[in-house]
Predict the structure of ABC transporter permease.
Amino acid sequence: MPAHREPELDGSVSTAATDRDGSGRDNAAALAGLDALQSRGGQSRTAAEIFRTRVAPPVVALLAAVMVWQLVVAIVDPRPDIMPGPLEVGRQIAASVADGTLPGALATSLWRGLSGFLVAVLVATPLALLIAQWAGLRSAVGPLITGLQVLPSVAWVPAAIVWFGLSDATVYFVVLMGAIPSIVNGMLSGIDQIPPQLLKAGRVLGADGWRLAVKVILPAAMPGYVAGLKQGWAFSWRSLMGAELIAIGGSIGFGLGSLLAQGRTVSDMAIVLTAVLSILLVGIIVELLFFNPLEKRLLRGRGLLAR
């Protein structure tokens, strides 16, 4: 009889052990890499880095624009009442600040713009959630909301003057008509991008009606909602300037649009550019201090931004 041979397991056992050790080391290395990536993404940024990446670029761009402006004025040498240089506008800004005209106009417009925008958010958010719940309602009012968004809000100024007179109600009405459709459409766009499985999971877990809207739909639609808020603010700010520029007198306070109209009336381009630069500065500050951090925080929370 042939001699009984023991199975040669040493090589296979050794190979399997090596494979396990190798895969274990690979997994450990992968986990260590992920941990390092997360730790680097979670590191707090220094003040110098924040200044270099967030503050310095817009400041440099602004200084470059001013230099180009001064260069054009120096080369073309236009009449100061037609195209003043940065120095003339700077002197006008200093004079408007000194006599309180610019701070008062800025405070009036900011209060109107922010309060009107907040009211628009409070109206548009539940309205969008309501429209999203019923397909028939969306089919009925969806085109109307889109049409209102496309309609220049300044077109509402004459009607608002007839309805409300020369009062703050005219300004707020125009602001709301400019902001609400944009916020509603942004919210609906975000809802359209929600995966159906997420809604089904929410219903399976017992969420329905407004609970489903608040707990599932609103958080999932947040990217589109924030985009709608950003556009809604832009529309409300533009609508406010248009209303203040056209509706002058009565009990309407003096805002940046009124300052712009004043410069037009007296044909003083320095006053006009003072108002224009102030309006532009408010838009830049709101973007840098509110919407830009909000968007980055949203992307970071969804794992789409390292830091």
Q: What stands out?
A: Residues 113-247 form a domain with the MetI-like fold fold (CATH 1.10.3720.10).
